[in-house]
Specification:
It is built from 2 helices and 10 strands, in the order ββαββββββαββ. It has helices at about 30-40, 140; strands at about 10-15, 20-25, 50, 50-55, 60, 100, 115-120, 130-135, 155, 160.
Length: about 170
């Protein structure tokens, strides 16, 4: 493992091409960070597909209800977890390449388990979607995720762990 400064606030997502390390930002979005760690520790993200991947924009995943590989993933992107939706935690942190954003519906307080990783600087999203992490290692693996809405053969998160538990 790379030099991880804060293992309790670092997420390791195992993709087909290798691990992706995500530094969470609990000072910016404590509720979203806590939810991601809670779902990771429960194994809820393991085997969940990337259901919306737009070249030059972002890769979206995290539908723990409908996005599990091996299930009927045709509804992936429409579900969340059995936890309540989160209040928006908008901040001045920009949606730069590699940042993690909370996916939501039109309601700002509807984020739950889904998230996206920005492929580029998507500043039009600033202060409209919660940023709660950033890729610190393995962005080259994120760049290789199969594209599509949904992808014909979607990639998945093989496992998602909190580094402190890995």
């Amino acid at each position: 493992m790379a030099d991880i400064k804060d293992p309790e606030n670092t997420i390791i997502v195992e993709l087909k091409d290798g691990p992706v390390h995500i530094e969470l930002l609990p000072d910016v979005a404590p509720g979203h960070c806590e939810r991601m760690k809670e779902l990771a520790r429960a194994g809820a993200y393991d085997g969940v597909v990337f259901h919306r991947v737009i070249d030059g924009f972002m890769a979206q995943t995290g539908d723990v209800e409908h996005g599990k590989e091996g299930g009927n993933t045709s509804r992936a992107g429409t579900g969340g977890s059995d936890k309540p939706d989160l209040k928006a935690e908008f901040s001045g942190v920009p949606h730069d390449r590699g940042t993690l954003g909370a996916a939501r519906s039109a309601n700002p307080d509807s984020a739950n388990s889904q998230f996206f990783i920005n492929f580029g600087d998507n500043h039009f999203l600033n202060r409209q979607y919660t940023v709660y992490g950033r890729v610190i290692e393995g962005m080259d693996h994120v760049d290789k995720i199969a594209r599509g809405e949904p992808p014909a053969n979607p990639d998945k998160m093989i496992s998602v762990k909190v580094a402190a538990d890995a």
